[in-house]
Amino acid sequence: MLDWLNLHIAYWHWLVLGLLLVTAEIFVSGFVLFWFGLAALLMGILTLAVDLPFTLQLILWAFASIAFVVIWVKSIKPRWKDRTTAGMAYEALVGQVGLVLESNAGKSRGRLKFPAPILGEDEWIFICTEEVAIGDRVRVTDISGNALMVAPH
Predict the structure, then answer these.
(1) Within 10 A of 1 (CB to CB), how many other CB atoms are there?
(2) From CA 5, how far away is CA 12, in angstroms rounded?
(3) What are 66-84's pLDDT values in tens digits?
(4) Over the stretch 85-139, which tens digit does the pLDDT of each residue have?
(5) In whole angstroms, what is the distance from residue 20 CA to residue 37 CA?
(6) How far is residue 104's CA from residue 127's CA, in Å, rounded to a whole number?
(7) Does the keyword Transmembrane helix apply (predicted)?
(8) Residue 64 to residue 51: CA distance in whole angstroms
(9) pTM of the entire structure?
């Protein structure tokens, strides 16, 4: 069996396997197949340049795959932290300071703007127990439905 594999497995088999694995990553979560595919592409390039026995190709492919996954998990993935605040509505909003664009004088609600968008929006409706003027700074204390509960800052 190994003799047959040594004679019939060519560099392009590795390239096709690599492309299939990298493409399969689109349909699978976890970002692991990509590294096995990248290792297969590496083996395709390596076997194109150097004639290696199939057993050694398998060992190198397994080693490269594991090395890529370890490098991904230990070095690259921690730097890929999600810096968005998606899914953290309460934690993202409470404590933020915004600028009043539309006063709540005579109304129950006003409009404020944050210096940077929070949860995709930079302007929000607010409710404040005190009257605030345009240009005042307010701090978010709570969330009530789609409105922010604020207090003067």
Answers:
(1) 6
(2) 14
(3) 999 999 888 877 776 655 5
(4) 555 667 778 888 999 999 998 888 999 998 888 777 888 999 999 999 999 999 9
(5) 7
(6) 8
(7) yes
(8) 18
(9) 0.52
